[in-house]
Write a structure and sequence with these properties.
2 copies of one chain form a homodimer. Chain A is 38% helix and 30% strand. Chain A is an alpha+beta fold. Chain A has 2 domains: 3-43, Arc Repressor Mutant, subunit A, CATH 1.10.10; 63-137, Alpha-Beta Plaits. In chain A, α2 (20-27) crosses α3 (31-43). Chain A is elongated, with a radius of gyration of 20 Å. The two termini of chain A are 16 Å apart. The mean pLDDT of chain A is 96. Chain A binds a DNA duplex through α3.
Chain lengths: 152, 152
Amino acid sequence: MDKTDRTILAALQNDARLTNNELADIVGLSASQCSRRRTQLEKDGIIVGYHAKLDREKTGFGLTTIISVTLATHNSENSKLIRELFDSLPEVIEAHAMTGEMDYYIKIATKDLKSLSSFINDKLLAHEAVQHVKTAISLETLKDTQNIPIGQ
Amino acid sequence: MDKTDRTILAALQNDARLTNNELADIVGLSASQCSRRRTQLEKDGIIVGYHAKLDREKTGFGLTTIISVTLATHNSENSKLIRELFDSLPEVIEAHAMTGEMDYYIKIATKDLKSLSSFINDKLLAHEAVQHVKTAISLETLKDTQNIPIGQ
DNA sequence: ATCACTATGCAAGCACCTTGCATGGGATTT
DNA sequence: AAATCCCATGCAAGGTGCTTGCATAGTGAT
C-alpha cells in the first residue's frame, strides 16, 4: 500500500460514489488503474464496505446516547453473553470493551427518550450479566465523520 | 417517505454499492423507480453521503480512544472555540456535547499510544478552553455499524 | 547489462444509470 | 357513483461508467 492507495482511500472515505474517472483526476492515474487498485484494496480487506450515511433527525432516530456498562461478574461467560447481547440489539450502533472502571461503552440510536428508557430497562438491565449502567445523552452532535485521518 | 423508502435506506446503509437492479429486487419496484427514489432521498438530505469504511488495523489507525472533555469556563466563547478545535483536528472522528458532569465526549483515532499522548498534551490540553480530560482506551471494538435501526 | 515481474495506459465490450413518455392507480370533488 | 386530476410506476433508449485483455514502460535483482 503506497501513497497513491492512501489517497484513494482518503477520497473514497469522503465520497464512495466517486467514479474511477474522478479518482483518476485526484490521484493522477488512469481510470482503469484506479479500478484495479480499488478492487485490490477491497480484496485485501482494507476497504471493508461502502455505506450510505443517513440524517439522524430526518430518519427519526435523532437521539444519541452513550452508555457505560458494568458487568455483574467478570468472567468469560459473561463476556461472551454481553457480546451476543450487543450484537443482537440494533439500537447498539457501536460497542467497545474499555480500560478503566467502566467495562463497556456503547453508543445507542433511538427515536426518543421513551424508546431509550425501554431499551435500558427491558434490554440492558434485564440482562443477567449487566450490573450497572451509566447514561449520558448527547445534546448535540458536533462532528460525526468516522473517517480515519489517513489523508493527513 | 414510506415503507419502500425505508427499505431502500436500510439496504443502502448496509451496502452503498447496490445497483438499482439489486435494489429493485429487494424492494419490489423497477430499477428506474429505485433510481428516482434514491435521487429524491439524496435531494431531501435524508441520505447525507456515501462513505467507504476502512479497516482500522490495516490502515494503521487501530487505536480508538474516548475522551471526556471539561471546559475551563462555560460561556459561549469557549463553546465556540471548542467546536472549532474539534472541527480542525482530524483525529477527532466524532464529538458530542453531553448531559451530565462531562461536557463533551470525543472519539479519537490514532496510530498508537505515542500519537495519542501527543494529541492529548499538544492539541487538547494546550487549548485555553480545556480544563480537564478523562481518557478511556478501547481494548476491543465489539461492534461498529453506525447504521440506524431503520429496517427494524 | 540482462532478465523478470509488476504497474500502467488504451481500447473495446459490457453493465449500469438516467430520463422522456405513456399508463395505471388512488384520492378528491361534484 | 362518476369524473377528474395527480402522482407513482414501468419501459425503452441514449449516454456514461466499469472492467479486462493486451501491449508497453518502469523497476529491481542478479
